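Good morning C.,

I know you're traveling, so I'll keep this short. The sequence:
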Amino acid sequence: YQRRVHGKIKSIEDVTTAILRLTEQIVKEGQLISDDSIVIKLRGPEYPDLTLTDLPGLVRAVSDNEDYSIIKKISDLVKRYLQQKRTIILMVIPANIDFHNTEILRWADEADPTGERTLGIITKPDIVDKGTEGDVIKLLCNQKKRLKEGYHCVKGRNQEDINNGVSIKQGLEKEMKFFSQVEPWNSVNKNLCGTNNLKPRLIDILKKLITRELPEVLKEIEGLYRSTQNELNELGVSLTTDFSRRDYYNNKVKDYIYLLDSSIKGNYESKFFNELYNDETDKEAIIPKNNKLRAHLRILDDVFNESIIRYEDVEDPEANEEKKLEREKKMVEQIKSNRGMELSIFPSYQTFKNIVGGHVTKWEPFAEDIKTQYFEALQIVSNRALVHIKCKPGMDKHINEILGKVIEELKTEVDSALKSVMESELQPYTLSPKVFELKEKARFESMIKELDRRTKEKERENKRDNISIPEVKELIRNLMNVGESAEVLQARDMCMNVDAYIIVSKDRFKDNIPITLNRCLLEQFTKRLSDKLSNINDSDLAKKLADPEHIIYRRNCLEEKLKSLSKGMEVIKLIGY
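The tokens, ready to paste straight into the viewer:
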């Protein structure tokens, strides 16, 4: 957060006081070493276009009441600034200390191996030991430890000057006198001495640094401009009029309905259908990794079809005689319990209906499963399409609410339609001749099987692959069921009737359920949703599309940022980059 100094800084003299006040605030908060920056901005025609960062001095030891960790904290802080490749390193070396013992030299070498952004600053030339001035001047003249940009010497106010109230301006005047009058400093190249001469050197180094970095800076600004523009686009446009809100809303709804309609009809041209989803633990794993809804529904249809076909409703032709007899006994009991006025030579419709109904009701769970899967897949693709169109939060919520209502309405209608299909199947009826064909086929199946058996026996005994006509006649007499009770014969006939009808009924049922889901759900869905979404007045629309305060604030910030970045790019391009 920002801390502010009470009162404005009116002159350079106020800077020190302002820094002291802010430092005291940070220390009172318990932060002896802080990453927080104290920022002082000075504007005026006499000030160079520079940003100076004053880092704490390096620490090698602490006092009894200080935390030993501040040594590392200061080191990390200084190194972080040194490593910034667009920072000029002002390497401060006190004149009264042997430069070999100055650790900052090594750190500067590591951070700036080419020396293109390092300038050595020699301080305190007035307290250097007598007789050692020559070594300091050699260092200043870049003769001992060479730096590409060399060194510069300054003399600031000492503690006595500060205590005596010497101003910064007066301190600069004293500095000029020192380098012009005090030996041997008055013999040194004047361009290497004094604060006033340091300014142009810094500006020159900065210019060279900027020239070198500008192409990369331009690329970074362009990238930042794109990312800022993308973030602004993510927030959406600011809608301030009824027309703009209506236009925005209608376009988003149109895009949404188009995606849903395309997914239902299998028109997969939009990029939306190439988006992949890989979360296997999510409920959405029930549909494919993309949004191709129709393709997935076809798979569900196939699974439903196979489930109905595989369900064992009819007698297995390969079943053994014991199972057939068991089924016939059960059928006898069912016929007895449902017997009416009909003669035994006529099949009992009520018995037939009850038996068929018992089979049909066992198919209902399969119909319920595919219905549930249709709705789940539709809901998931609808949710994904809503995310894809990227509309404002209020509109997103509104569409979700309408979507939920439409799906609930359609669930009720689909349940009613499927119930009608089930009720229809519980009333056996068909005009298909296939029922008679299947029954007759079943009737003669046992005869064909017995003929095949006897043919194989003859083949083994007499080595011939056919049987005589008298033998066929004998077989037919044996299969005429002479001697069996009417109940058994009627039960056997009923079994054949049921098996033949169930096969036909299954074919119809496994078509009718998907057809009903398509007619009552998919064909109604987008039309119903579109109608309900279009029914909104301007007042409600204004509320749905109103941006929260934080979005408005963020959009304004981004727009200002874009203006600054655009201006920066223009300036860089104007100077030839």
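Safe travels,
E.
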